[in-house]
Each structure stands twice: as structure tokens, then as C-alpha cells.
Amino acid sequence: MFDPVELMGGAPYSLPAEEKRRRMEQGLSELTQHHYHNCPEYARLLDGLGTDAKSCYTLEEFPMLPVRLFKEFDLKSVSQDKVAKTLTSSGTSGQSVSRIFLSKENTRVQSRVLAQIIASYIGKARLPLLILDTEQVKRDRTMYSARGAGIIGFSTFGRNVFFALDANMQLRVDEVKDWLRSHAGEPILLFGYTYMLWQFVVRALEESDATFGIDDGYLFHIGGWKKLRDQAVEPEEFNNRAQSVLGNITVHNYYGMAEQLGSVFVECECGHMHCSNYSDVIIRRFEDLAVADDGERGFVELLSLLPTSYPGHVIVTEDEGQILGEDDCPCGRLGKYFKLHGRIKGAEVRGCSDTYERK
Amino acid sequence: MSESKEAMMAVSNKTTIDVASLPGVVILAGASAVTRMPTEVFSKGACSFLAELSKALLNDAKSKLWPDVVSFAYWCRRSNIDAERRARESRLCNHLGRGIAFHITPSNVPVNFAFSWAFSLLAGNSSVVRVPSRPFAQIDAILNVVQPLLQEYPEVLCRSTFVRYPASSGATELISTFSDVRVIWGGDSTVAAVRSCPCMPRCVDVCFSDRYSIAVLGARGIAQMNGEELSKVAHAFYNDTYLMDQNACSSPQTVVWQGDQESIQEARAVFWAAVRSEVHKRYELQPAIVMDKYVQACSDLIKNRVSGVERHDGYLTTAELSKAHALSELNRGTGGYFYEKSVGDFSEVLDAVDERYQTITFAGIDGEDLRRQVLRCRARGIDRVVPLGQAMNLGLLWDGYDLVETLSRKIARV
Question: Which residue has the higher pLDDT, A288 or B13?
């Protein structure tokens, strides 16, 4: 199996479109073959869709696995004894849970790539890390949840990790201020889940008329915008209000599925979500899942070179997005950049199926 | 003696039941109390009332807007009721109603409650009709016409009450204690929930459980159709399926093609092309449905339930059942996802038809032949064999019951 870091080489946003396409097609074709031969469910799917695992596909031709299938099937391309951890994520739809089977090798490559991507924003040095969450979430490590996994994964980029919230999700204002004082003069790294940090940190500080006054730092946040949209909070307002209570920090929203940890999409200074060398995005038309034009809205298909222990290298999500451009973002990063519009609305169906109203 | 038994004894002595005073119950139309006293089946009062209701609905500006209300009005017209009566005259002349019928109607088919009530009225019963909690313009339209008309028909008024109540109010339990019949729509879990409420010893439950339906298409017949005939068939198929997102019990989930391989291939091509052009004209496609169908296709392939999937476009997906699967094992599609099976003769799949199968819709083939096959093979399921386009036509013969007969009782003599 190829090494994605070797294949894609160099800095994470360095490959121009044509070269990137060539290398991705090579890597993803190899992955498709690998999963075809090692994951029987995936093989049946490809056979049925009539797209045998041929030696080379174009990017748009790879068979897409709907993310929902990770809830319905145990999809893995390694034997059970090679599974080092099973990541679970519930998603917003509720009861059913996705199960992602990670081998040691797969986890390692995820961490390497995530480190490379994050380092391209903050540098290689480990910074004091303030987690805008509670330490409680990483307690249960047997079946570890995506939220806990995200925190543990991100913790490796920092040092002197400090959790801003107590077990009851209360902001420990004084303790955080003490911790910040002990790191005066250093850039601070902050990490949190979008809605939680909004609710329990930004809003909490605003309500108590307090600020952290950080001189220099970076905030990385991830997670759904649905609840914020319900409160009519747009990204720009989010950033402004976060900066006014936290201090002089750069805010980076990023996007990543539990099904594709590592190869995340980070929003640049211009507010654009970027594909790195390790990932790509294709927008699929709502009417028929055909490739959409640039700028047209559709389902977000995600490609990643990292998944080896489960067939998650080409997945189609139920998120809505649009391509904004490729290789020409004013921030200078190469690769496609795009905008997300959240989860698509669930279907409203008519009919007389069983709908007895329960107590 | 337990409290509920006492309560039952108390009500069984009364001739009218006060529905309005039950906790949580809101009366939308009809009487606040209903009589327990039955009438004969097809009573003059009930028949003339329905005939008047039919006219009033067809003249009502709001009602006319809704095709489902219009089809109810059309069903109630005098000539249809007369035909239904004449068909049963000799058989049901010694029948009386059972008393009070309690109707639990499905929460997302707006006009079903009206049919259930009309059937019960013709069977000589009083009705307590629980209408869906979800607001539907069709319900308001019908009840706005029903209410004033009831005032002119006191013998129908005292036999009709339309109610809403929250599930938590316990009204289902209370109404069950005095009902002589419970008409339970809404599928298996509703049936189980209502049946768990104690009822009077002689109470009859008429249950409409989850059912499953198929279409049988004659390949040669379809292949030989001209353009006009094909679009008629496609229109009919649309009404049976897409109109209700395939969620009705009588909507076909599997299309069984009967014929030789060559004509099946030909027929499939022209049929699905005609369906697609019909669907493009009429169906409002939601992105979530497109994704649901893709997910279902992938899932069916992984499970080996189907051997191949044809995604014609976002509007239509067809999935060929694997050899191992005679029929689709009651799996359902939504918004244009159909299973297909090719057979030389329909009898090849009849073994797989169990008691959960309800309707066969057919085209390009002789329906009477199909019906005879169902009878000859002594199938456990299949209660209706109707032409394509009539899957949704609710009538007095439903789910294998003659509802006037089931909702009434025969007075025997030697």
C-alpha cells in the first residue's frame, strides 16, 4: 500500500490541480482495489453497481459509499484482530451509530496528516492548549466517541493542556485566567466544538461581561452549524464575537467526518473551506447525483487518501455544499475550496404507513 | 369487582354515551353523545344523507380543490351507494348494526376517516371517529360540510361524532370500554396498541394491519401498447405509487414481469420510459429522497437482496431481485424505488405470497386469469386484484372484508 504522505509530498496545500488529480486517481484507485479485495460488503456493492475495481478511475468515477451505510453495516477491510479501536459517532439523526474500524496503521497516518495540516497554520512548535470543553468527554475510552476522539487527537498539537469547562459545563473563568497568565507572552492554541464553545464559552463570557484578552493565538473549531443557524448566527458574527471575548486570535472552522478523520478541511483567512493534498470534494446534483457545475449546490462527496482499514475513501454525505474555486484562493493555498450549507432537509413523505402517535 | 368492570357495567345499561365529557376529548363535529341503538344496514336515512353529502361536497368550493375529497364525494353519490346496496340486498336484508363503532384512523391519510365513518353508517352503527391529530385542510373541508348537513338528519347526527384527543389522555382506553366494534387503521403497531386496551366481551375488532402489494405486468401486452396506451398505464402507475410516495399498503412495491425474456426486455424499456416522463411532469422530487434511494440501492446490493440496480435518474430506481428472492420479502421503497422480478408465469412467485399481501394491480394481462390463479393456488394472501390505477380506491370490500357485513350482525332464523 502506498504512503499518502510520500504520494502527495511536500506542504499540504502544494499540488496544482492537474498534478493533484493524477496522484489522487492513482492513490484512490489503489485503495478501491484494496477495499474491493478485503471488504466483502464493498465488493458486493461494486459488483452490483457494475463498476468493477478497475485499475484506474477518474476522480468522478469512483463508486461512492453513502455515509449512512456505516450505521447499517460493519464495514472493515482488515481482520478483527487488526482493529485497534472502533470509533462511534451518532450524527444528528439519532439512534443509530456509525462504527468506524481503525487499525493502528490507519490511526497513525490520520495523526500524521492532521498534524501536517494543522502545522501549516500554526507552525511546528507545540503551543499551550486550551480546550473549550470538559475533561469528562474523554473519560470513556473503550468505545470512544467522535467528540472525545477529536479532543484527544487535537491534544497532541499542544502542551500544558487545560480544560475550560468543568463537569457541569460551567466556564472556569478564574482558573482559565490564571492558566493564561502562566503562559503570558506565548501564542495560545484553542480547540472546541462550534456550538458548545459558542454556548458555554462565548455566550457565557458575554453574559458575565468578562474577556480573556489573549494577545496571540489560534482557535480551531469543528461541528455542525445547525443550532447556530437556528439562532441566526452566521460565521462572520461568530468570529467577531469570539474574538471580542477571547482576544486577538485567528479563527479556523474546520470540517471533517468521523468517516475520514485526519484529512480535514480547514477554513482559511478568507473564510473558504480548503481541500488539502490528501482530500478532495465533488459536488453532486440533487436530482440525480451527477457532477454539479462549479458554484452549483448539491450533495457533498468527500475523497480521502487515508482510509485503509475501512472503505471510507470515497463517501457521499447528506451535507449540502458548493465549490467556490480551485487553486485561486487569495490565501494562496492550492486545491479546491468550497462552502458548506449544512445538512439537507429530511424527506417529507406521504402515505398511510404506521404512524400511531405514541404516549 | 374491578373499577373498569364497574365502569363497563355502568355504560352497558345506557342507551346513549356522552363522548364530550371524556377527558381530553374535543368534538370537532357531530353529536356530543351517540346512541347505542343500531339501525338496519343501508338504512334510508343513511343512504339519503350520503347522497346529499356527495352533492354538498362537490358543490363546496374548498372541498372541490382536493382530489381525495372529490373521490370520497364521488364514492358517496346515490348511484354508487344504491349499487352497493343492491349487490348485498338478498344477503344482508336481515342485518342490524352492532352498536357503537370506534374508528382509529391513520394519521397521515386525510380522508380515510370519512370512508370509515360512511362504511359504519351504512352498516347501521353509531361512530366515534378519532381523526388524525395532524391538521389537514381536507379534514376541515369535509367536516365543514358535514356539520350543517347533520343538523337536517337527526338520525345520522346522533350516530356521528368526530373527535381529537392527545394520545396521553387515555381516551382510547375509555372509548374502548363502551365500543361494540373497533375499526383500527394505521398498521401493526397501532393495532397492537389499541388491542391492548380492554373492551367489552362481544366487541369485534376490524384491523387493518401493515399490508404489502405488487403489480403484475404482462410483458407482451405492454410491449405492444401504442404511445397513448403507454402514457395511460404510466399515469395509472403514478397514481398507485408516487402519489403517496409508495407508502400506501396497496401501492405496489415489486413489479412482477410475466413473459419471455425478450418481451420483458422490450416492455421494461418502454414502460419505465413512460413512467419517467409521467413522473417528471408530476412529481416534486426532494433531495433527501434521491439520497434515500441511493442508500437503499447500496444497502440492497450489499445484502444480496438484489442482483442489480438501475438508477434511471433521481426520479426512478429499479432493483432486480436476486434469484434467491421470489418476492421482495416485504421490503418497501419510497418515492420511486421499485423491486422487479421476471417470471415466465405468475404462479412461479405465488408460493412466496403470504397473508401480508393485499393488492395485485395489473396491466397488459388478463386480470380475471390472475384472480383465478390466486384462487386455484389457494394463496394465503391477496385480497384484491384490480387494474393498474385503482390501487388506492378504498371501498366496502377491503382487506378481504365486506365491511358492511363485518360491521353488522345477522339475525338468523331456522
Answer: A288
Q: What does pLDDT average to over chain A?
A: 89
Question: How many CA atoms within 13 Å lie on the side-chain side of B270?
Answer: 23
Tell me the C-alpha to C-alpha distance, in Å, between residue A13 and each of A115, A233, B343.
13, 30, 56
Q: Which of B243, B309, B335 sits opposite A49 (nearest CB)?
A: B309
Q: A172-180 contacts: CB < 8 A, separation 24 or more? A: A173/A205, A173/A208, A173/A210, A176/A130, A176/A212, A177/A212, A179/A128, A179/A130, A180/A130, A180/A212, A180/A213, A180/A214
Contact A48 B309 (CB under 8 A): yes
Q: Choose the weakest-confidence range: A227-236, B58-67, B174-183.
A: A227-236
| pLDDT tens-digit series, residues B179-196 | 999 999 988 989 999 999
* Under 8 Å between Cβ of B128 and B102: yes
pLDDT at res. A347: 65
CB atoms within 10 A of CB A356: 20
Instruction: Tell me the domain boundaries of chain B.
Output: 3-208+399-410, 212-387
Which residues of chain A are within 8 Å of residue B290 when distances are taken between CB atoms?
286-289
CATH topology of domain B3-208+399-410: Aldehyde Dehydrogenase; Chain A, domain 1 (3.40.605)
All residue ranges of chain A with pLDDT < 50 are 92-93, 142-143, 352-359
What residues contact B40, with CB distance under 8 A and at least 6 apart? B95, B96, B97, B124
Distance from the B86 Cα atom to the nearest Cα atom in chain A, whole angstroms: 31
Q: With 80 as the cut, is the pLDDT of residue B410 above it?
A: yes
Q: Which residues of A touch B311 (CB under 8 A)?
A: 288-289
Residues 6+ apart with CB under 8 A from B204: B98, B180, B181, B182, B406, B407
Give the list of residues 6+ apart from residue A32 with CB closer than 8 angstroms, or none.
Answer: A46, A53, A57, A62, A63, A313, A314
Q: Tell me what pLDDT residue A206 has.
A: 96
Q: What is the pTM of this model?
A: 0.87
Q: Please give the helix or strand (H or E) that residue A156 lies within, else none.
A: none
Distance from C-alpha of A308 to C-alpha of B377, rounded to nearest angstrom: 53
CA distance B383 to B386: 10
* B1 class by beta-carbon count within 10 Å (0-12 exposed, 13-18 middle, 19+ buried): exposed
Q: Which residues pair with B308 in a beta bridge?
A: B320
Rounded to an integer, what distance in angstroms lies between the CA atom of residue A294 and that of residue B330? 41
Domain boundaries, chain A: 4-342
How far is residue A11's CA from residue A197's CA, in Å, rounded to a whole number? 30
pLDDT for position A296: 97
* Mean pLDDT estimate for chain B: 92
What's the rounded Cα separation, in Å, for the pair B163 and B181?
A: 17
A180-212 pLDDT, tens per residue? 999 999 999 999 999 999 999 999 999 999 999
In sequence order, the β-bridge partners of residue B343 are: B258
**Contact indicator for B391, B250 with CB cutoff of 8 Å:** yes
**ipTM score over 0.85, yes or no:** yes
Interface probe with A: pick from B295, B300, B337, B359, most Cβ of A within 10 Å: B295
Question: Which cell numbers hold the place of B156?
Answer: 345520522
Amino acid, single-letter form, for residue B134: R
Q: What is the pLDDT of residue B10?
A: 54
List pLDDT tens digits, range A86-121: 888 755 445 578 899 999 999 999 999 999 999 999
pLDDT at A66: 96
CATH 3.40.50.12780 fits A4-342, yes or no: yes
Cα angle for residues A119, A124, A126 (degrees, 5° grid): 105
CATH class of the domain at B212-387: alpha beta
